[in-house]
Here is the input.
Amino acid sequence: MALEQPISTRLDDADYSALVARLLGGAGVGPETPELPPQVGAVTRHAADGRRRRFLINHGTESVPLPEPAHDLLTGGTVAELAAGGSAVLRIA
Here is the structure.
């Protein structure tokens, strides 16, 4: 009686990324804001009273334009882009 041996492999970064993208796509999981590049982390929080806030962090080295200008609760002003290494908390209608 032969014992089955596990088989493994080591993927390079490109193949690993392709595998993860395929698994996430098959599960129906996608980015929070597909219009922003992958170096921008985005999470939207929903309050019980219906208010929504989008938290953004730019992990990249270049500024990123936002899909549309929005009110930033951190600065109190309107922002149209997210600076390199910058963050914002946007009020979403």
